[in-house]
Amino acid sequence: MNTNDYVKFYQDYEEMCAAYQLANSIIYFDKTTIAPKAGAAMRNKLTSILEGESFSYMTDPKNLEKLEAMLKLDDLDDITKESVRQRLRLLRDIRIIPKAEYVAYQNLIADSSVAWEEAKQKKDYAIFEPYLKKTIQALKKLLSYRAENGTPYDMLLDDYEPGMNIKKYDAFFAKIKQELLPFIQKIGKEGKQIDDSAMHQHFDAEKQAAFIEVVKEYLHFDASKCYMGVSMHPYTMKVGPGDTRLTTAYDEDFITSSIFSIIHEYGHALYGMQVDSEYDNTHVLGENMSMGIHESQSRMLENYIGRNRSFWVNNYPALQELFPQELGKVDLDSFMKQINISHPSLIRTDADELTYPIHILIRYELEKAIFNEDMPLDHLDQIWADKYEEYLGIRPANPAEGILQDMHWGSGQIGYFPTYALGSAFSAQFYHQMMKDLDVDSLLAQNHFEVIAKWLHDNIHKYGSYLPSEEILKRVTGEPFNPQYYIDYLIQKYSSIYQV
Predict the structure, then answer these.
(1) Which cofactor does it need (predicted)?
(2) What is the CATH number of the domain that holds 360?
(3) Is 326 one of the annotated active-site residues of the chain?
């Protein structure tokens, strides 16, 4: 085979991989939004069979042999070579796993996700516990096949953020504990307290949905490329070029929950939609981005943009109009203080910026103990609650406020959580540079989010996964990752809000 033959093979190979991904992605979106619950067991069984067919094609020895040969070609273009390299990196995780075990695991995590949803609705951990134990045990077994350096948890961390490991995360979270935890405690003791009771009234879900449409228009949400649904836990998926799906969830007792969840998810969606089209035919480069960078984009929109006063200059009147009784007497300045309040809370997705990394720290320490220290799996719900009491001084009243609040563990996404804190720190460094390049406040106040979106495209989004996160950080900010931007931003912001 000559180089052109290899390139043609690879284009066909990527297209087939994308076809399987398309089918499974649409099925997943359907089952988490509108699919009848009674069909879950059969759906999960059949989709695991489909996953098995995808597995067989991707790991076919003949295909793997050609992929590895392509990396040795001297005249292969850089984009294709990097795409092949990343595809092989993804395949390293599954190519040595017996197909039967892979299919059984896919079926397990699908059933586990269904059990999680039921358990959360009923606030009953006993429904989910056996599935979680099986998922953890199965994932440990799959990791045992991988002949890689590092511990099992190191492997999982590297899966979601290439190059990250326990040593690096330990140093990062040590800084969080040393500099932010004392400040959080100081805010609680010395800060001028803020009454946010106005945010915790009854807010009709249909009216909330009407306001989400206002937010979508402000953010230039393109319905021809992106679709929004409703699910128990918000998420985003890029099905393929020109087809991105995201969801939100409505809490009728907390107005900002759905607002900030959709802004967060749109950060993910915008990133995927703004990857340069030259990567459309090498699907892995358009959809395999570092989760640290991905979370930096969602957290940037949610917090640096969505909690910015200038964002609300135009949008808050529309919210007041929909909820005149609830918010009519709450002026913009008071509203801004309330949406930026900081206090220990139980739900990660509703947590304020300052305490948010502590939610991730808790999950990080639990995951590390489970995978590297063989922590017993009995009573994980109580161990979770103990951690919250240790770090934030509060304890879940029920499992839905505790271990059942997130969907990640039920779907086998262990090692993902730390990227939320890492991404938050990345976003502080990116935003610091954006503020140098753009008058962000004026752009937001004048309804010109498209200028901000273009800056994100030109500096971050267009690269997809072609460049690693460290290289993107250096290109945008002129320096490697520096978590001090994140620490300084949080302390400065909340010192001003709480007058400490």
Answers:
(1) Zn(2+)
(2) 1.10.1370.30
(3) no
